Amino acid sequence: MHIFFTIIAVISRIFANSLSNVFQKKLACCGENPIKINFINYLIPAIACIPVLFFIDYSLFTFEFWKYAILCGITGALCNSFMVLALKYGELSVLGPINSYKAIIGLIFGIFLLHEIPNIYGLLGMGLIIAGTYFIFDSPKEIFTKSVMYRFLALFFSAIESVLIKKVILLSSISVSFIISAIFGAIFSYLIVKIFSKEKVEFPAKSQRIIYLLTAGCFVLMTFSTAFVFKNMNVGYALSLFQLSVIINVVLGYKLFKEKNIIKKLLGSLIILIGSAIIFIYGR
């Protein structure tokens, strides 16, 4: 039963992540400021969490907990800001598969902070994930575009955030981890808006409100499911399983945004999936 719920959490996280990317890209393509999108994405669940704050026993939390919680908020805000910027300028079918490198970064930080050491199959799976991304790009020059650079920055901070989330969970619980992610994410996302944007944060236009709510809903589902998986699985391997979303991203990019070279990108995604399967079956 425990394994069943973990599988459900992985599937939920995969679909929530892909749909969140679609909604964020739609908002960015409609002229919404990417860092404003990120702030509101955190703000909606943060407001919903405010009543719960009065029922938490804060005396149970150590200095170490607050240290990781704040770092988690900072890296989360930076990650999602760069992610929406990448989605504004790049293709979903390219940016999705690039996310596979998060597993590599997460594994490295997991070794030093969580003492999670991969076996030979884990390393083989990681190698296939890297090889699969070769087919995603139309040319080597595409690696150096603005959108890809933003995406690499996003996955870098996301990988660090993943390790920090697990540290927060180990020091508290899944529900506390979610509340902390939403509250501190909203605070630091607002600071990013104030520092890097001259625009005032105004209430979204009526035509955009439903998309913002859907994005926030995906964020809630993604955050809860991610925390549940991290609590029960090695971070590096969990991040590899999350790469199953690459197929969904490629298909959605083709169907919704008319992106090209679908066959080549699907081939690269298949190689990535094989790497993820090896990690899941043999790498634990």
Write the SSE topology.
Layout: H1 2-29, H2 34-49, H3 63-89, H4 92-98, H5 101-113, H6 120-132, H7 146-171, H8 174-196, H9 206-232, H10 235-241, H11 245-257, H12 262-282
Would you identify the regions where 5 or more consecutive residues have pLDDT less than 50? none
Shape: globular
Give the helix level as a range of percent.
over 70%
Mean pLDDT across the residues is: 84
Q: Characterize the quaternary organization of these chains.
A: single chain
List the helices and strands in order: HHHHHHHHHHHH
Number of strands: 0
Rg computed from alpha carbons, rounded to a whole number of angstroms:
18 Å
**Can you count the helices?**
12
Q: Between the first and last Cα atoms, what is the distance in angstroms?
A: 19 Å
Query: Can you summarize the main beta sheet?
Result: none
Give the DSSP E fraction (strand runs of 2 or more residues).
Answer: under 5%
Task: Write down the domain tally.
Answer: 1
What does this structure look like?
- The protein has 284 residues and is mainly α.
- The protein has one domain.
- Helix 2 packs antiparallel against helix 8, helix 5 packs parallel to helix 7 and helix 11 packs antiparallel against helix 12.
- It is globular, with a radius of gyration of 18 Å.
- It is built from twelve helices and no strands.
- The longest helix is centred in the first third of the chain and has 28 residues.
